[in-house]
Amino acid sequence: MENRVKNGLLLISKDLESRFGYPVITVRPRAMLTRAYGNVPLSVAEGFERKYGSAVKKREDRTKRILFSHNKRYESDTKVFNSGKIYEIDMPAVWKEHFRDMSFSQFNHRFFSGELFHGPAGEIFSPRILVWVSYLLPFPEMLEKLKQICLSLSDIFREFRASGGTFTAGDFKDALTARFGEGMLRLEFSGLLLDQFVADLSRNVGFRTNRDRMKFIASRKAPSGELCYRVLNTGYIAMPAYIGQLAAQCPPDEENIYRAFIPLGRNGHQPERLRLFSMLELLGLASCQMEGSQNMEVFVRVNDPETLLSLTEEGYSNAVLTDLRRRHRSAQETMMGFMARDFTTAERWDVIEDYFLGREDEVQKALQLPKAAK
After folding, report:
1. Which residues of the chain have pLDDT under 70?
2. How far from the centroid of its chain's Cα atoms is residue 219's Cα?
3. Under a CB-based contact definition with an 8 Å cutoff, are residues 126 and 38 in contact?
4. pLDDT of 15-41, one tens digit each?
5. So where are the chain's domains?
6. Are 243 and 214 a contacting pair, CB within 8 Å?
7. What is the pTM of this model?
8. Cβ neighbours of residue 321 under 8 Å, at least 6 residues apart?
9. Which of 105, 150, 170, 286 has the CB geometry, 3.0–4.6 Å to 280, for a possible disulfide?
């Protein structure tokens, strides 16, 4: 997904610069894995700073997660903080000075799997991701809107399950439109929203239950190549309460921003709060930024917002991508023509020679292909 986003942005940037003669947007992928964050146990934090010196820097940590009590008469809410001090780590510098006995790739893998640093008494150093979540509505209003959306989503999945069959991403988008109208949700992201609930069946997801309370949809490819979905179990019933509870645990500061250093997921599982934040952004309820994970960072600056806005209103077609598709289609037709026609060995070698010398007209004539549009 990260590479697709990066390549898509680069294609758009290149096409717009070619079309208008100046960079409408600037896209610059940042070097991967240059900066990371770690939770260092208090008992060894001083020694950690002393050993790694200027390559590590202590960061202010505002992380707070509130676990609400179910019975406030007998117990109060629980506030969860990081157990140690948070450090920003210059990964290339630490690797160069202390871990040159392993490759940089091995160094990063061991860091993000929690195996790189250990204290003298077995203390665990765990990686963290820095997240900023800017809520686009006052927090109580955002929670109420999220609740109503999740209840409607639950109803949609209940109806799909009651039908007893499968449904497509188009069916899901139509159901969202019927519930919310054209302007209520970011319907262009309906496919990504549906993916939030699709389970990985290789993890032995059951038809009745699933440990992951956000995953209750199965997907498979139909003979036509289109993805079809079906509701596996009744997880959609508890989903609104679960997501609402997660969101309520992440209250903002006075600027209506939630800032936290949160743990990475293990064994390929994304942390539940990161999935929540992704969902909030898809629903248009928050704007999220993450830093320090294993994923690529891409710097994007919009230099001409008015031009971008006019393109969205007129309908945008990427000339670079169109040309790539034309070339791909032409290559397919050439290969099919080459394999299907009855040539002597000498004639085949002549076609091969013309192809690699760039004599497109000769190749098309030999294969009796229509002349490709430029």
Report:
1. 1-3, 29-33, 72, 182-187, 202-211, 266-268, 293-297, 371-374
2. 19
3. yes
4. 888 888 888 888 876 655 678 899 999
5. 31-124, 139-287, 319-367
6. yes
7. 0.69
8. 11, 15
9. 286
